[in-house]
């Protein structure tokens, strides 16, 4: 697939947040889209994402500009899809020792008095904290459901509980669809957005995608209403309140995390662990997204990355511009498969 080819009929494999975003944006751009998912929308790693949306502090890496655009892209998507489950709380980060870092883009270094106003239940406000007022968080599965509804509204066909067994190739060797247990699905191109399964699906056509599972644990806690007000990041946890009586935390171990929550917040003595789930994040070998066409396998386009919830809206829009609009998007230049 050349950068100037305009694709009008495509198959998107994977209904995590990246695949759902690609399906929505390409359908909205006028393509005939088929979205196929082995299970339920967001039933893979997405449901175990901490789902912190932030652009603050981003400075380096080939995807830095993509990450810097994350909050703006979510606000755009929120305007396009009313009811998108986004909470714009801002984030507050600190460490118990060391001097305050230099503020990055979109960040402000604040003292303990300000930190105490932002998080009024802190037992001992830190000497300094990094305040990113534009940050937010999402209900990632809810975002996927809204994206899929939007894709359907623009004519996309959605096949759930339909595992893809192989990529199809035509007589010229071009990828022209997928095989599933329910039959063949055809298109002018296939977007593989299947997280860690992307490598397995690409291997039979001779493409080695350097992505592997990176375990991460998400803990859910019962908690008093209004205990935590922002996305809170410390050396012990990433923490946020997702319902009046629920917290979620991304952390390493249950008991130390529970102890840290109780020691950090007044009124947290009754916080109790409800569940712990380990998700397998798709981690490219260099930690950066892999997005774009595969020259060795015409018709195949890859979209696999870590921080998928953060990057999903931007990636979906840019992939649609490349596939349906025939453009070559500069923001994706450093994310190409041919760098490996």
UniProtKB/TrEMBL annotation:
It comes from Microlunatus parietis. GO terms for cellular component: cytoplasm. Residues 9-321 form the FAD dependent oxidoreductase domain. SUPFAM superfamilies: FAD/NAD(P)-binding domain. The keyword Oxidoreductase applies. This is Glycine/D-amino acid oxidase-like deaminating enzyme. One of its GO terms (molecular function) is oxidoreductase activity. Keywords: Oxidoreductase.
């Amino acid at each position: 697939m050349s950068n100037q080819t305009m694709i009008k009929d495509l198959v998107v494999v994977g209904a995590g947040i990246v695949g759902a975003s690609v399906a929505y944006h390409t359908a909205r751009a006028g393509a005939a889209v088929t979205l196929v998912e082995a299970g339920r929308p967001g039933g893979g790693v997405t449901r175990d994402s901490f789902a912190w949306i932030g652009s603050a502090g981003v400075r380096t890496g080939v995807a830095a500009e993509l990450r810097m655009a994350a909050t703006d892209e979510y606000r755009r998507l929120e305007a396009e899809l009313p009811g998108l489950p986004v909470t714009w709380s801002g984030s507050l980060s600190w460490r118990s020792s060391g001097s305050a870092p230099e503020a990055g883009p979109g960040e402000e270094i604040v003292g303990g008095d300000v930190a105490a106003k932002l998080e009024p239940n802190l037992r001992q406000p830190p000497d300094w904290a990094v305040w990113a007022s534009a940050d937010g968080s999402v209900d990632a599965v809810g975002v996927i459901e809204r994206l899929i509804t939007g894709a359907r509204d623009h004519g996309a066909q959605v096949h759930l509980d339909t595992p893809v067994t192989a990529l199809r190739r035509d007589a010229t060797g071009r990828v022209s669809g997928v095989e599933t247990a329910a039959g063949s699905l055809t298109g002018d191109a296939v977007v593989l957005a299947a997280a860690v399964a992307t490598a397995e699906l690409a291997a039979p056509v001779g493409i080695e995608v350097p992505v592997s599972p990176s375990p991460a644990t998400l803990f859910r806690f019962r908690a008093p209403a209004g205990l935590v007000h922002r996305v809170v990041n410390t050396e012990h946890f990433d923490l946020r309140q997702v319902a009046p009586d629920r917290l979620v935390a991304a952390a390493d171990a249950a008991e130390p995390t529970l102890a840290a929550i109780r020691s950090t917040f007044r009124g947290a003595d009754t916080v109790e662990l409800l569940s712990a789930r380990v998700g397998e994040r798709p981690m490219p070998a260099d930690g950066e997204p892999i997005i774009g066409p595969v020259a060795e396998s015409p018709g195949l386009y890859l979209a696999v990355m870590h921080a998928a919830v953060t990057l999903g809206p931007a990636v979906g829009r840019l992939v649609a511009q490349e596939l349906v609009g025939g453009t070559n998007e500069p923001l994706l230049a450093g994310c190409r498969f041919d760098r490996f």
